[in-house]
Amino acid sequence: ALPAISGASLTGITDTLSFRNLIINGAMNVAQRGTSSTSSGYQTVDRFTTALTGVDENPTQAQHALTSSDTGPWEKGFRFSYHLTNGNQTSGAGGADYVFLYQNIEAQNIASSGWDYTSASSYITLSFWVRSSVAQNFFGYIRSRDGTEQSRSFQTGSLSANTWTKITKAIPGNSNIQIDNNSAVGLGVYLAPFFGADYTDDSKTVDTWSAYVSGERTPDTPSTWYTTNDATLEITGVQLEVGDTATEFEHRSYGDELARCQRYYRLQSKSRASGKLGGSQNYVSMVSFPLSPQMRNTPTVSMYGSASYNGNVSTIDTVNVTLDHIGIMANISDGNYYYYNNGWTADAEL
Known about the structure:
Elements (H helix, E strand, L loop, with lengths): L35 E2 L11 E5 L6 E6 L14 E6 L12 E9 H5 L11 E10 L3 E9 L5 E10 L5 E8 L12 E11 L13 E3 L20 E11 L11 H8 L3 E12 L6 E8 L9 E10 L3 E10 L2 E8 L4 E11 L3
Antiparallel strand pairs: 1-3, 2-5, 3-4, 4-12, 5-10, 6-9, 6-12, 7-8, 7-10, 8-11, 13-18, 14-17, 15-18, 16-17
């Protein structure tokens, strides 16, 4: 006889902790675009992006490999972080300057998560590991994006330099929050190495919901990190889950996390097509790429690579781009050999 299993039937064991993390790629394992960049926006770790303004030298964002010396996250199975290295901000901390990183979450993922976001007695919990090369308190905020936008700032507390710290924030709902059931942005999670005075208000109370105001995102931000050349800040293990208690991080396989990321961005490496045509007619070569998983919305497609060798491919264009399909059409100008070697990217980021 089989032993009894508490809380589960023999016909189907349910793990109530599966698929609970509303953050995608929170372990920073997937980096389709590359591993290092001095540009802002989506450049390295999938689903995470850095916004910059007013800087004298752009910070570097990177997917950073952790080692056994990364005490804390390493023992919990994390092997990568999202890593910012500050530039040299020679003009100091200007009021209009900022550097912040964030992930936007689809509204329908929040709406169907089980969080009663309009109730003060219903919670989601944010948790993450963070390390800074300078000792400082950092601020972040949660921002709802539908209806009258609401925000709720939080702080890490004073971090010791070069020491990993686990941050946990329980976040109740609020009657003013609106989350639509669609594929647009519903909620954003932000962490700010620096906000200038144009974006902060020291009278703002942390851990309290209020209407989002661009000039009142957080209390006044310390400038230590921003004014220290080559200062670093890195995070990993970002998890947002329904409930008032942080559970252990939901580690997902690389393949599963990649598929989740490909709903928003996907990279098709170069696909070679070649042949020989008879006669002197013009021809069209068609290649079809199904998109699975389906993308969030109709993507913006960009081609890269060698458009033509030996001059016989006159144009290459995308055709019939939909949520689940991309067509590539090459116009071949005569009956000689033709050869093209193009890849593409499809972008449907929030």
